[in-house]
Amino acid sequence: MTTAAAAPVADVVRPRRSGGSRRSRVGAVPSKATGAIVLVVIGVLFAIPLIAMTWFTFQTVGTGAFTLAHWAAILDPAQASTYSDLFAGIGNSLILAVIVVVIIVALLLPAMLLAELRYPRVHRVLEFVCLIPITVPTIVLVVGFVPVYQVVQSVLGSDPWTLAFAIGVIVLPYAYRPIQANIGVTNLTTLTEAARSLGASWPVAVWRVVLPNLRRGLLSSCLLTVSVVLGEFTIANFLGQNTFQTALLLLQQTDPYVATICAVVALLFVFALLVLISTAGSIRRPRRKKS
Amino acid sequence: MTSTAPSPAESLVVRGTPVSLVDVVKDYGSGQRALDAISLDVHPGEFVALLGPSGCGKTTALRAISGLETIDSGHVRIGDQDVEAVAVHKRDIGMVFQSYSLFPHMTVAQNVAFGLRMRRVASADRTRRVQEALDLVGLGSLGERFAHQLSGGQQQRVALARALVTRPRVLLLDEPLSALDAKVRVQLRDEIRRIQQETGITTVFVTHDQEEALAVADRVAVMNAGVIEQIGTPEDLYLRPATEFVAGFVGLSNRLEGVLEHGRVAVAGQDLVALPNAVQDGPVAAFVRPEDVLLAEEGLPAIVLSTSFLGAQRRTVVQLEAGSALVVQHAASERPQPGDLVHVAFSGRPVAVAPLR
């Protein structure tokens, strides 16, 4: 018996495909005109409420005449006490944003790197845990948080910053996804192995090779975290804390004009964050040396 | 006027270091050992290729040398030092990976300088050595580019320069050519060999491409199922394969079943002189290279199944009347057509004879 190993076979006739010249448009890149129409429609959809809200802030009560009084009121030192809760709420929200970002960078990122580089079997579990909060309504989470926070408050006090632990849970899906997407398109395993083979210890490999290549995902994650924290209402309200959103609700009942101004500014701020996210990754670093 | 500056290769010359694997075992717990007590000695300055099919353990062996893979038992020696307990970054190795591994956020020059920075080489010396390493791989003018601005071949050249610039004790190449197209692969293969010979660095090269292994290596270790089947020069492997697996894996061969008697193998009535090995008389499998089979006027009758033009030669698959297929390599001037009735004869002895199992 003989075996002809790997012999190339010639004279192979392949069946010809019929209708090969027809190209499907399904999945094709839209034309420039289509893109422009979509962009304009969506732009108008978003712009109309913003413009209406902004227009509302320039109207006088009753007459509807144009006025800058509502905008000036926020900046008027004489009325500072009127809006003190609002400013305190903004301050609390910003502090919360910083703490939650620190939690993400200090806990979630290392956990994801360990799962990617050292313990791939944990990867699925970590993903599952991080995505759970998006499937559970916040109000349900809050019901669970209430008894937990009775303990937290007895240990750490009832300062607004303690909300960071609860909000840190609900931002997990938003923080996890951008980092994971970045990891998915970066061959971190090979890059770290290359760095280590060149003499870098684990910490140095992570600092000099991994983190610079996760910059886009990490930045997106942090900005999304900030926008979620600034928009969070349910947890703060049910746990009785003063944040930007809870203060805004109270202000709405007494001064809807200033509340609307704050809402417009907050929306523009989040919009700016999203623009920053989308451009962050396309920024080509290095300045080139002139020869 | 003559220049006294050393060539790039001279400045990167390293003293070859011996590398040894001694009874190395690695078991992932999948039922079969990835490395089953393999031993391998690589001499100083030698270029050894680990060749084998996917999953045979060749990459695991390489990673055991690098330290990227821990071993269950045995010893890994670089120079006169057992390095099982030495961390990867302290083993003083250079490594080129199968997938592109340049750091995307760094320029080519910064990539090459990375290992030198880790060793705290002074800036001026670093700049000079980076340029020399890039000159060595023919990319001296591309230091300011980023990885995404390079072709695959250029990226692997940079990876090679990056691995060599630190003057490591051993260079480990993990299928560095497999992602490249055929033409670039051959060019870079020859370049790797040239650079290895110029620098004198001990090199272990993993590949599943036998042509690649035979073309560049001083010795080739053929691996299968976690063991080394044979270690030898490319000629040894091709002309004197030690096992049935090596005979089948290295080069094309026809496996012919026959009977060994008094040093001759009878196959379908034709006599083949057997190799003087220790196989006892009885039923055997003989391995005959396609170039040792002729299309002749007389011999075993066969029908041509297919034929392929290879340039100077042609490879034809024939079906013996006995029922089995046979590959024949012959001059391109002979043009058998599928369906032709031909005769085949054997012009050489089998490269290996193994007892029939």
| Overall average residue pLDDT of chain A | 84
Element order of chain B: H for helix, E for strand: HEEEHEEEHHHEHEHEEHHEEEEEEEEEE
Strand content of chain A: under 5%
Q: State the CATH architecture of the domain at 86-279 in chain A.
A: Orthogonal Bundle
**Looking at the structure, what is the overall shape of chain B?**
elongated
Q: Using DSSP, what is the number of strands of chain B? A: 20
* Helix count, DSSP H or I runs of 4 or more residues of chain B: 9
The largest pleated sheet of chain A is described as: none
Description:
The complex is a heterodimer of chains A (291) and B (357). Chain A is an all-alpha fold and 291 residues long. Chain A has a domain at 86-279: Orthogonal Bundle (MetI-like fold). Chain A is 69% helix and 0% strand. Chain A is built from 13 helices and no strands. The longest helix of chain A is centred in the middle third of the chain and has 34 residues, at 84-117. The N and C termini of chain A lie far apart (69 Å). Chain B is an alpha+beta fold and 357 residues long. Chain B folds into 2 domains: 13-239, P-loop containing nucleotide triphosphate hydrolases (Rossmann fold, 3-Layer(aba) Sandwich); 252-355, Nucleic acid-binding proteins (OB fold (Dihydrolipoamide Acetyltransferase, E2P), Beta Barrel), CATH 2.40.50. Chain B has helices spanning 8-11, 58-66, 108-118, 123-136, 152-164, 182-199, 210-216, 234-239, 244-249, and strands spanning 19-26, 35-42, 47-51, 73-78, 81-82, 93-96, 170-174, 202-207, 219-224, 227-232, 254-261, 264-267, 270-273, 282-288, 293-296, 300-309, 313-320, 325-331, 341-346, 352-355. In chain B, the strands form 4 sheets. A 6-stranded mixed sheet of chain B has the order 6-7-8-3-9-10, with helices on both faces. In chain B, a hairpin with a 2-residue loop joins strand 4 and strand 5 (81-82). In chain B, helix 3 (108-118) packs across helix 4 (123-136) and helix 4 crosses helix 5. The N and C termini of chain B lie far apart (71 Å). The interface between A and B is large, with 35 and 50 residues.
